[in-house]
């Protein structure tokens, strides 16, 4: 029978259970009668959904593990509901933590069951060959970028070679200046900045719960220092990766890879940016925030770019820590210290990063193979990478619940992580609809890109709501 229907039911069960867990943990502390009644009603509806899902799983001839998973959940669910009721009536052994643990267990089991269902239905219709890892990562080079120049000659900066424009040619000079400014701007990886700034701001928002005041100078200086530091780290990354960037379609036209900016100039630019960043952080913020910012630059530009990215398939998992640091930087900027809420926010971003990046790694799998990067889909194939996306997404959602549980974040936060988490989960599930398409096909690429955008929407939306709750509401 109808397998897509079972998949839909499982997705709804996962999201419904997550809503219960998120609302329960996040709003537990200050749950008014409306939230409590909503929690009870949702618990009944999700219970019914689980019954339907288990029945459909049994009747649809799904994989035995899907039937077992849905049945196990169905058996545990009344116990979990009982613990909740007992806890609510003050029966001591059944406190909120056990109820939370039960919710996590139900959510985790359902997510694994969904994954089994997705893989079972996908593998049924897939050409085994299309899911295999790339056989030979050292494929031929991408067509040379426009200049095609040897990287070793990059020090002779072509942008400085012809510094004598004709006075009549003002428009051309302006164009050249514009091009050069654009090239330097591109070195700073500006497209990443909005989310990293939002993360630092959310860290600052959480810090206000300590009673610390948020002043304009701290906010502006932290963001300015952070933006310059990210720019420096991005610039060093461009310099170090210029050879491999030339081999990848996505990166072949980068400023250093194409010699639009010479290596020496780029390094000097990076050093200038990081120096100004540090000066701003030390002068207008505090030493801890400055030290964390310096650590983030070293983490991304050296630990990730040089040590991890070219050598291990765990590169993005371990390297993701650099992108999580702005949470600590923002918090430290306001309080002068780092505490649990900031650490948990960083943990959310750390877990989110593989779920974010693996989509791009799938979309650009052939590119990464060409440049000989040991990215997960290159080494283990698309199916195994999607499995990891589902896993990291699940852990991210649970980390978000934990963050909600230890802070004053309330219903808007719980709803944001549920709704945007649901959109993210759905986008990943839709990647499985490309079963049968080749791993490097346009359909696989586009589906992966949709999840990439959903990942950014998830984190952006959740961070925005944290800001709203901590600074406005
Ligand atoms: C190891 C960690 C990470 C890796 C390898 C990674 C990789 C990438 C890559 C390759 C792109 C370019 C996408 C393209 O060419 O279209 C990108 C874009 C982006 N990343 Fe990440 N990323 C990581 C962590 C983060 C973190 C921690 C954040 C923010 C908290 C972040 C936010 C963004 C944003 C906002 C974009 C731009 C999206 C757009 O252009 O619409 N990334 N990432
Ligand atoms: C100071 C501070 C807060 C620094 C944060 C560092 C930072 C930008 C972290 C995010 C990690 C990231 C975007 C990696 C890009 O991957 P990639 O370099 O592999 O992407 P590429 O293939 O586009 O080069």
UniProtKB/TrEMBL annotation:
Gene Ontology biological process terms in this record: heme O biosynthetic process
InterPro entries tied to this protein:
Protohaem_IX_farnesylTrfase, UbiA_prenyltransferase, UbiA_sf
Molecular function GO labels: protoheme IX farnesyltransferase activity
> Region (Disordered) spans which residues?
129-169
Q: Sorted alphabetically, which keywords does the UniProt record give?
A: Cell membrane, Heme biosynthesis, Membrane, Transferase, Transmembrane, Transmembrane helix
Ranges of compositional bias, category Low complexity:
143-169
Catalytic activity, per the record? heme b + (2E,6E)-farnesyl diphosphate + H2O = Fe(II)-heme o + diphosphate
EC number, as in UniProt = 2.5.1.141
Kindly list the GO CC terms recorded for this protein: plasma membrane
Keyword 4Fe-4S in record: no
Q: Indicate how the chain sits in the lipid bilayer.
A: Multi-pass membrane protein
In which broad location class does this protein mainly occur, judging by the first location in its UniProt entry? membrane
Q: Does the keyword tRNA processing apply?
A: no
Task: List, alphabetically, the Pfam families matched.
Answer: UbiA
The subcellular localization recorded is: Cell membrane
EC class name: transferase
**Pathway as given in its UniProt record:** Porphyrin-containing compound metabolism; heme O biosynthesis; heme O from protoheme: step 1/1
Family matches, as NCBIfam families:
cyoE_ctaB, PRK04375.1-2
Describe the function of this protein.
Converts heme B (protoheme IX) to heme O by substitution of the vinyl group on carbon 2 of heme B porphyrin ring with a hydroxyethyl farnesyl side group.
- Give the family from UniProt: Belongs to the UbiA prenyltransferase family. Protoheme IX farnesyltransferase subfamily. In the C-terminal section; belongs to the UbiA prenyltransferase family. Protoheme IX farnesyltransferase subfamily.
Q: What is this protein called?
A: Protoheme IX farnesyltransferase
Q: What organism is listed for this UniProt entry?
A: Halopenitus malekzadehii
Q: What is the lineage of its organism?
A: Archaea, Methanobacteriati, Methanobacteriota, Stenosarchaea group, Halobacteria
Q: Tell me the gene name.
A: ctaB
């Amino acid at each position: 029978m109808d397998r897509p229907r079972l998949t839909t039911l499982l997705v709804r069960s996962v999201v419904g259970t997550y809503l219960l867990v998120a609302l329960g943990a996040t709003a537990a502390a200050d749950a008014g009668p409306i939230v409590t009644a909503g929690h009870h009603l949702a618990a009944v509806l999700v219970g019914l959904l689980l019954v339907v899902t288990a029945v459909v799983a049994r009747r649809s001839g799904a994989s035995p593990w899907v039937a077992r998973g849905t049945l196990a959940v169905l058996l545990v669910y009344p116990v979990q509901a009982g613990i909740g009721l007992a806890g609510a009536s003050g029966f001591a052994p059944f406190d909120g933590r056990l109820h939370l643990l039960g919710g996590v267990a139900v959510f985790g089991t359902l997510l694994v069951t969904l994954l089994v269902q997705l893989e079972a239905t996908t593998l049924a219709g897939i050409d085994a060959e299309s899911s295999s890892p790339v056989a030979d990562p050292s494929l031929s080079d991408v067509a040379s970028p426009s200049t095609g120049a040897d990287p070793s000659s990059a020090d002779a900066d072509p942008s400085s070679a012809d510094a004598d424009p004709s006075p009549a040619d003002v428009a051309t000079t302006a164009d050249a200046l514009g091009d050069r400014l654009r090239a330097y701007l591109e070195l700073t990886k500006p497209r990443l900045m909005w989310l990293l700034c939002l993360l630092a701001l959310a860290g600052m928002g959480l810090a206000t719960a300590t009673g610390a005041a948020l002043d304009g100078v701290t906010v502006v200086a932290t963001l300015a220092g952070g933006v310059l530091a990210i720019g420096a780290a991005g610039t060093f990354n461009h310099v170090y990766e210029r050879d491999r960037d030339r081999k990848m379609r996505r990166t072949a036209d980068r400023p250093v890879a194409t010699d639009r900016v010479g290596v020496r100039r780029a390094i000097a630019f990076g050093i200038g940016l990081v120096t100004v960043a540090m000066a701003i952080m030390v002068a207008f913020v505090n030493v801890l925030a400055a030290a964390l910012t310096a650590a983030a630059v070293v983490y991304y530009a050296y630990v990730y770019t040089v040590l991890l990215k070219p050598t291990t398939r765990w590169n993005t998992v371990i390297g993701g820590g650099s992108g999580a640091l702005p949470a600590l930087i923002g918090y430290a900027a306001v309080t002068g210290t780092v505490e649990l809420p900031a650490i948990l926010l960083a943990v959310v971003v750390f877990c989110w990063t593989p779920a974010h990046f693996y989509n791009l790694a799938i979309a650009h799998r052939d590119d990464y193979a060409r440049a000989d990067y040991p990215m997960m889909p290159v080494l283990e194939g698309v199916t195994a990478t999607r499995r990891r996306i589902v896993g990291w997404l699940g852990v991210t959602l649970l980390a978000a619940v934990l963050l909600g549980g230890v802070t004053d974040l309330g219903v808007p936060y719980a709803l944001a992580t549920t709704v945007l988490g649901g959109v993210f989960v759905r986008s990943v599930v839709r990647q499985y609809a490309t079963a049968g398409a080749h791993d490097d096909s346009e359909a696989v690429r586009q589906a992966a890109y949709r999840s990439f955008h959903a990942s950014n929407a998830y984190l952006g939306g959740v961070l925005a709501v944290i800001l709203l709750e901590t600074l406005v509401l």
